[in-house]
Amino acid sequence: LVATELKGQADAGANKGTYGEFGVAPSWALGGSPVTMAIPVKVGLSLRDYYELDGTDNKFGYVDAGVLFTVPLIRVPTNFGAWNIHGGVNFLGFGDTTKALNNGDAGQVVVSGGIGMSY
Questions:
Q1: Is-contact 4 18, C-beta < 8 A?
Q2: Closest CA to 91 of 71, 66, 113, 73
Q3: CA 56 → CA 31, 44, 59, distances in Å?
Q4: Would you say 75 and 105 are in contact if contact means Cβ atoms under 8 Å apart?
Q5: pLDDT band for position 12 (50/70/90)?
Q6: What residues contact residue 108 under an 8 Å CB cut-off, 6+ apart?
Q7: In whole angstroms, how large is the CA radius of gyration of the chain?
Q8: Fewest 10 Å CB contacts: which of 64, 92, 99, 109?
Q9: Within 13 Å of residue 53, how many CA atoms lie on the same side as its CB?
Q10: Is 59 left (phi over 0), alpha (psi -120 to 50) or beta?
């Protein structure tokens, strides 16, 4: 993902910035079950003036790594789409600017869950 600030800013910097995000999410079926486990990892970076702090463009914004389990809901008829329930936990580590914007927190743990559908 590449994004550019067109008007205004999300940080306290002086310049419009460009953000880059890179990630992967390899996944595996668990044994002979329909459950899959994914290990999503992504990194948020300043490509130019995005994570500014006190006049410095800090290139590293954050790293996000976790685990996600997905279970298909096989009792739902396929003409209603492919449904699943999923849940996981992610660990975020913040760079200097992101840490400052999050009240000095060096990281965060995020637990998530939901219902998904693809058609």
A1: yes
A2: 66
A3: 49, 17, 9
A4: no
A5: low
A6: 91, 92, 94, 102
A7: 18
A8: 109
A9: 15
A10: alpha
Helix ranges, 31-104 (H): 96-101
Kind and range of the H or E element at 35?
A: none
pLDDT at 63: 98
Which pLDDT score, from 0 to 100, does residue 7 have?
77
| CB neighbours of residue 107 within 10 Å | 14
- 88 contacts 67 by C-beta, under 8 angstroms: yes
Q: In the beta sheet, which residues pair with residue 86? A: 70, 114
If phi over 0 gives left and psi between -120 and 50 gives alpha, with beta otherwise, what is residue 30?
beta
Q: What is the mean pLDDT of residues 49-71?
A: 94
Q: Which two tokens mark 53? A: 């702090």
Task: Give the strand pairing for 2-4 and 41-48.
Answer: unpaired
Structure tokens at 116: 């998904």
Tokens at residue 119, please?
A: 């058609």
Per-residue pLDDT at 99: 95
Is the model's pTM score more than 0.90?
Answer: no
